[in-house]
Fold:
Amino acid sequence: MAEPPIRSVNWRRDPWIQPSQMKQNIKTRSICLCCALSLAAVVGRAQSQGTAGGANSINTPRPFDPGSNTTNPSALAVQAQNPYLGSVPTGPVVPGILPLGLHDSVLRALRANLGLIDTEKDHAQARAARMRALSSLLPQLTADSAQTYQNLVENSIGLNVTTPAYNFQTAHVNISQRLLDVPASHEVAAARKNVEASSAEFADARNIVVLAATSSYLLVAAGQVRLDTARAQLATAVATEHLVRDRVTHQVSPQIEGIRAEVVRRSAEQRLAIAVANYEKDKLALTRIIGLPLAQEFRLTDGLTYTPAPDQSLDDLTAVVENQRQDIRAAIARVGEAVQNVKAQSAERLPTVDIRASAGETGFNYSRSIADYQVGARISVPLFTGRRIESDVLTAKAALERREAELADIQARAIYDVRTAMLDLKASETSVEVAVDNVTLAQEGLRQARDRFENGVTNSVELVQAQQDVAEAEDNRIASIYSHSLAKLMLIRATGTAEANYLTYLGVR
Structure:
């Protein structure tokens, strides 16, 4: 199918990010919840923005609204801010207008997006936790020096004998080593699995950032096109009003015709004003996601175009999911971590063995000191702990069962995501085809209505309706093209290859 010209757009607010994983800590759980909230906010703004829902209007799947979240103290403030919709602005404001391509936007987002920064710091904390767990198995070496001033009191046959006050100095090097500690060994293994999970979660977060940046970029590109269309529709409405006014002046048409034409022109002005406001807000949302200063002016260098998706079967995509979905890898690592925690708690019943040694000098001063040393070993066997170990084991087993259930759910959800993305992609391809045909039919209807009106065969009602049909068809076509692009993004997000394949699927070089 040939690429249709792009002249207008009608926003449809819809989900963009589905929760990719069940994470261990509260912060990452809130990130997934925010993604789900963004995924649930959809069609509202497009429907309120201008499409009247005529007979040629086609509902297209899953547009994206990067500005659906808010930090304003209002009724929506009870929602947590989605960190993937925020960023840390970097760099000064560039004078003039900054050319901004899709690839450049994604690179900026991967450097400055708040969600990715949070996930990166979580990964750093996981590495630090592994280092701390490992330290319990390594030798501990310390050095100390002390000077003491004291006297001694000795009881000898009921008499207190006091030694006059004296001072002495000590300097020692101490070493301790845990020779046998099975629970600590399993805790180190659990910490290693935690690092693997956080690494996979960080890779998954990069895919989320790519999805957020590209979706927002395409939304701005669609807004840019809609502005041009709104201006063209206003120019058409003004020309029609002049034509009708001239006919009313020459008493060829009644006064009601002029009133209708004026209403159409004012409605076009209103649509243009709304389009300008929404376009500017979408640009601000994009700057928030990719880390541009809010005062930075920019223009997009990549437009909204229709390119067919690569032809892939469901079996091929399922195979990709098994190898590329980072949230599945993270869930597998979380199960491994829980297994090690169960082993660590069960091993609390085993004995521990450690040794301690100290060597140094003691004397009245360092020049008159005597070398001394001390070596000892200890074995500790828990005999009765008040069922503490049993309760810890039960808690660890419950956590393991939860992680196993989460893994099974994520594996099933991954296939579900691919199947729904394929369905959305097919539906959006059909929507684009229907929308393009509707534009052609609506434009032909407008041409015939204008001819009939100029020849006095009909009144302005038919002409006004034909103009409205063209506006709706144009809006729906751009919404369909945008929705098709978003469906492709959701597909590569479902397969876990958003960062690697977004340029290919969107047809951007």
Summary: The CA atoms of residues 109 and 290 lie 4 Å apart.
